[in-house]
Amino acid sequence: MADSPENLALTQLRAIRGDISDVQSTLGDIRRRLANLESGQASIIQHLGNLAAADAQQQLATDGLTERLVRIERRLDLRDA
Q: Can you give the pTM of this predicted structure?
């Protein structure tokens, strides 16, 4: 006996509902992975900021040492010929 049109429509609707459920599950996974990527990116940006701050501190220290060396050379009257 052939299925009635209502049963065929219900079968198709159930299949579509299952597909939508799979898509929603996959979308949830993608959202979680994206959140992890964004968190990792924020961490990298924070580390880059810390590295830039450390670099600036090193540059200040180097500049201070250069100034001290220039003063010492001036006091000892050491100059490049």
A: 0.63
